Amino acid sequence: MANAVISLFKPKTLNLINNAVKLSNVLPITGVQNVRSLYSKSTLGIDGFTMQQEKTRMQMHNISDKFREKMNEYSNEDSKSMIFTEDLKNMIHLSESDEDIQLVYNMIKKFNAQNKQVRFGNYVFGPVVMRMLHLYGKHDMAWELFNSPEMDGFFDQVMTYQILLDLLYENGKYDEVLKAVDIVKSRQLEGAKYPRNVVVLALAACYKLNTKESLDYAVKMWQELSEVGHLPMRRATTFAAGLALNQGQPAIALEILVSCRNQNYTTIRNIKVAAFADLGRVEDAIPVLKSILSDDNPGTTVHTFNKDVIEKVKNAVVQLDNPDTSLEFNRIEQMLQKQGHIADTVLDEQLCSEIQRPPMMNNRDRNQGQYQQRYQRNTQNRGKTFPYTQRPGLNDLV
């Protein structure tokens, strides 16, 4: 751990870190470690997948049983019949039982083993298969397929990585998440060694593991990100800082928070206050607590602190045993309570809250589709039709 810290922080900061353990009386942030999906279904495209399922089931209602029988026959290793793109697409969207999913598994294996020269379509199966496996909680099968040498290239899409990692995370397979992240880094798909959502899930897994080893991994990743100029998403920042806090390294937590452009986010403020309390620096925590009182304007979102963070500061104030500081903190706490600035949630619950699909993404996808239709109409009117290419990965969100 020491080498990782030395390579990450400046000498002046190292002095702070070395003194952190002496200065701090660390009170762990408490809370229920709920295991659930980190990304919402809409963000992962699972909502859209289930809609397509319903559509396919309606279209194939009268022939679905016969179709299953035929696919069971075709997917047999001894069968000379081929699995076509439409066959696999339909069976994935018809799946509704363990038997169906096993059939899809067999079809995928044969489909990918077929001579690729006869497949002229550009349909990308990786995200769709992972959505099916995520929907039915088949994390073991997903992990097996992803690691299978014979499936090389089949699951190499950034969106596929995100769905797989979220599925592993949801099922508490945090070590597997980190193993998958290392594989993703080695592949550098589309020139990206650190896809943003992959980084979030990697640090989320580290946070859930909450061990010295996971902190070592997180600090090393943070160092690598800094070296390549990668600015992590806010959720990645708070997971890394929260882990450092839980591992009794509040100084590292504070240094990680510096990378966040907006210091006014609720999670950033909460971790910062908790870290100052752990360091025994109540005088630095109090101004942060007071800041949301002055920012409180009618009609705006009420800024809050988690109840366990407030309790942490209160304990630090008691240990400081300074009458003036105690008086000031009690006054601030009463004001926060009266004005509704103390949330009835713990920091862990807030850090692990579900990541929703931003409204701007919904608008962007809709506008993208409208632009595609206009573009094709215009080119057809000129007597020419040019291929339209979406931005990489955007079609995987559908």
From TrEMBL:
One of its GO terms (biological process) is regulation of mRNA processing. Transmembrane segments: none annotated. GO terms for molecular function: RNA binding. InterPro entries: PTCD2 (IPR034629). PANTHER family: PENTATRICOPEPTIDE REPEAT-CONTAINING PROTEIN 2, MITOCHONDRIAL (PTHR14700:SF0). Residues 355-398 are annotated as: Disordered. This is Pentatricopeptide repeat-containing protein 2. Residues 368-383 have a biased composition (Low complexity).
